[in-house]
Amino acid sequence: xxxxxxxxxxxxxxxxxxxxxxxxxxxxxxxxxxxxxxxxxxxxxxxxxxxxxxxxxxxxxxxxxxxxxxxxxxxxxxxxxxxxxxxxxxxxxxxxxxxxxxxxxxxxxxxxxxxxxxxxxxxxxxxxxxxxxxxxxxxxxxxxxxxxxxxxxxxxxxxxxxxxxxxxxxxxxxxxxxxxxxxxxxxxxxxxxxxxxxxxxxxxxxxxxxxxxxxxxxxxxxxxxxxxxxxxxxxxxxxxxxxxxxxxxxxxxxxxxxxxxxxxxxxxxxxxxxxxxxxxxxxxxxxxxxxxxxxxxxxxxxxxxxxxxxxxxxxxxxxxxxxxxxxxxxxxxxxxxxxxxxxxxxxxxxxxxxxxxxxxxxxxxxxxxxxxxxxxxxxxxxxxxxxxxxxxxxxxxxxxxxxxxxxxxxxxxxxxxxxxxxxxxxxxxxxxxxxxxxxxxxxxxxxxxxxxxxxxxxxxxxxxxxxxxxxxxxxxxxxxxxxxxxxxxxxxxxxxxxxxxxxxxxxxxxxxxxxxxxxxxxxxxxxxxxxxxxxxxxxxxxxxxxxxxxxxxxxxxxxx
Length: 560
Description:
Low-confidence stretches: 508-514
Strand content: 15-25%
Number of helices: 19
Mean pLDDT: 85
Shape: elongated
Strand order of the largest sheet: 14-16-17-18-15-19
Number of strands: 21
Structural class: alpha/beta
């Protein structure tokens, strides 16, 4: 196959010489067009898109073409013969003559002028913008003829001066085409090696992406994909993980109905950093209809843990989790248990999948069919109405053998008569009433979230409004609090949520702490506990001390 060479001639008369040279190079498929400077660069860019392998041009046009294409560009050099012919002809002009051009023209011209003692002056320009100003000055100084390249000659003619173009002779065009042959021989050898190495890489990694420092794809080979499946968020999460770990990382994403595994590492070449992504397309993950949901690239907000109760839970969960032991997370509904599991997955799993399993929806025999190769954590719900113990035990043991984190979520203590033959570590999820220190940060976080999501006005809550919420905390879950703050943010017209707005949402609040001794003994007892809690600003430890009971008893009585 012949090498495709494209010549951009800065002036029309060069094409005659090009046509004479073409038959002398049968191994080259030579095409040519006429275009100077930016027009020539545009033609060159189009020629590259059409398959040109080597470009040839001259002077300033060649320089612009080098910036416009990615293939080799050969600059037609002015030979001594070219200069002698042009300068000899210019010296015959009856009037002052100046040689104006870039250094590649003027440096050789000065030597020939000195040697031949020609009555010519040389002026060197650094950019095409200098031409017009310089020619006007030369015209004012009495110069009538300008010798140079295309732009110089055309500008001279515009100003009413004679213009003489320094043309490239046949020997210069021949030398450029010979250089094109040499470049092709060199590139073809390297191209053969490149093809071999490329085949080896693509056989080993059939789905490969290389990204530059701006996360732009500079190489792409995707055998198993019709198009690049990675979103900007996938790339951001992978690069962040890579920057943090400073080593090879692996992330797993759910794309459409299949799992996508991305293995990435960094490499440096010529002081530039590149990120290499190897993609693997997994089997379809079609288990959602069986109560199994796969989560990945979980972008979670930071968990609020200002309270001692929440800090202790996080500390204990992490200790058990890092020892690869199963955790039974016990707490009331909507207390944030599942949110906490996702937080642990995000913080400590280094990518991979998290499965959320609703045992009540899983048909018998399906747990062992779940592919676990990319799974890092499993959340199991509704233990009390799920699969048979033998199947569940086998599944949990398989997860533990693979060092997959196991979280079982429940609202009741485990039935002592039900044995799972697996030692579960029970950790009690604190209710909102045990997280008084978390109340204000939670509210602020919710307000910030709704401000960004819905454009709400409120950004803060007044102290008396906060106190109304504190009074309701014993009867609220985290999700109920979230919903209340959402309604308050949507209805508040000021920057600060007022007690009046909350009162409308909560209903009438008790105006005093006066007790009415009516109802059963248990109801009166609970009213007394609520009054003491209110007086102690919902501090359970102080309330329990005043009532003469321990904190666990107080918590149990509140739940009754």
